[in-house]
C-alpha cells in the first residue's frame, strides 16, 4: 500500500497538500515537529509518522471518551418525522444535522422551516457569503438547526451544540466520531443520533469504491463495515468507539441506547476462546472470513495453502453456522478482544483483553440482539439534561429566561452567547438559583471577572423568577413525548383519556398521521395508543395498517424463522420492508387468529 493510498484513508482528500508536509524534515532537519489531531486510530497515527518522516517520535494520547454525549442509533424509516419529534421535545437546543448530499441538506432544511423550525442549510455549493451568513446565524443562536454536509463544523467554536444527527450513515468511525464531537463541547449533556438502514450501507459502499484504486476500495469498504457493525451492535456503543481508538472502557457507559435497553446475554467465553485460539495458532495472520472457515473446518484453497487445517483449533466451531460465527466475532471485535491490522491484509490481532479471555482470566458475555424500542431511562447525564428538556418545570422555565438574558447581552456586545456563559453554567444556575455573590461564584463557569460583568443581571432575573409557582406534570420526562398543554377547569380530569381520544379519531377514519397532526402528538405516541388498545382487545381497523397481502408476507416470514422471532429478526428478514409498528400489529393479529 502506497503512502498516498494509506493517506486517503484519513478522509482528508480535500487537503491533498498534507502529503507534501514530509518535505519539512528534509529542508529543516533540526527543527522540532509537532503533529496534533483529535481523532486518529492506530493506522492513522502510524501514517502520520510516515508522512512527516518522524523517527521514533514521542506519542502522547489523551482519552477519546466524551461521556457527556448520549449515543443513539435509530431506524432509518420516517427520518423527517423523527427529527421533528426530537426538535419538538427540545425546542431551544441548538443542533446539527449532517446529510450526505447538498440536495438532501436543502430539502431537510426546507421541511424544518415549513414546520416553524428556525433552520438553515450549509454546503459547498453555496457562495462564501451564503455560507458565512448561515454559519454566523447558527453561532449567534439566531437559528436553532443547521443542516449541512460533513465539512461544516471544522473549526466552529460553538460550545453549546446540544445534539448532532447523522441523517445518513457516515463512511467510517473516524469521521463519525469527529462529527459527533461537535456536540457538548461545554461538557453538558448532549445527544448524538444516527439514523441507520441497510440501504445506507449499499449506497455508501458504492460511493467509497467508485473511481478509486482496488486497494483503496478494499480499505474503504472495511472501514465502512466497521461503521455498519457499530450501527448494528448489541453491546455498549461507547465501548465500541473507544476500542476502535485503542482505548479500553472498564464497564458499560450507561449513556447509550444499548446500555439502557440491554439485550439478553449468555456466557460466550468458550466460543470466544475457540476463536482467539485459532487466531493465535494461525500466528495472527488471518482475516475474519478465513478465521470462520478455519473454525468451521472448511477445506478451501486459503485454508489448505496456509496449512491452517493442521492447527489444533481447526474445525473446533463446526457446530455453529457461518452467520453465528460472523456475529460472535464482530461482538468480540466490538468488545476489544481483537483489532484489525488493515495494513497487514486485515489480519486480526489479539489485544491484552483478548489474551485475558483466552487464558480464562476474564469471562465474556455474548449477546442475542433485541431491538431497543421502549423509551430510554434517564442516566446520570440525562438527569442533568432534563433541566432543559423537560418542558414546563421550574428549572426549564428559569433556564429559558436565563438563555434569553444571555442572548440579549451577547447581541449587545457583539459576541456569541456561549462567550457570556455556557449552557452548562446556565443549567446549574437554574437548578441552584444563586441569589448572592458567594452563591453565584460557586457556580461552575462563573469567575470573579464574569461575576463583576454579568453577575448582578443574572441574580436579578433569578430573584424575579422566584415569585411564581408551578406544579409540574408527573408525566414530564426528557425521554417521553410531552403532553399537549391543554387549559382545563379545576374540576376537569387530567389528560388521562389520551388513548381513548386517539381511538375515537381512528374510528372516524383518520390515519395515524392525521391523528398525530390533529392532536398535536408525535406519530410514535399515536401508534403506541393504537397498539395498546388492540392489545387490550379493542376492535380496530387492523387492515388500515397492514393489508391482507402484507399480513401473508409477514406470517410467511415468521414461519420461516420459526418459534417466536424477535421484531428485529423479522425486520431484517423482510429487508426493512415493514416498520416495527406494522410488525407488532401483525403479531397481535396472528395471536388473535390462534385464540391466544
From TrEMBL:
PROSITE patterns, per the entry: HELICASE_CTER, HRDC
Obligatory cofactor(s): Mg(2+)
Protein family per UniProt: Belongs to the helicase family. RecQ subfamily.
A Pfam family hit: Helicase_C
Swiss-Prot/TrEMBL keywords: ATP-binding, DNA-binding, Helicase, Hydrolase, Isomerase, Metal-binding, Nucleotide-binding
UniProt xrefs under NCBIfam families: recQ_fam
Keyword set includes Manganese: no
Location of the Helicase C-terminal domain: 79-227
Enzyme Commission numbers on file: 5.6.2.4
Catalytic reaction(s) noted: Couples ATP hydrolysis with the unwinding of duplex DNA by translocating in the 3'-5' direction
GO molecular function annotations of the record: DNA helicase activity; hydrolase activity
Domain HRDC: 392-472
Name by which UniProt lists this protein: ATP-dependent DNA helicase RecQ
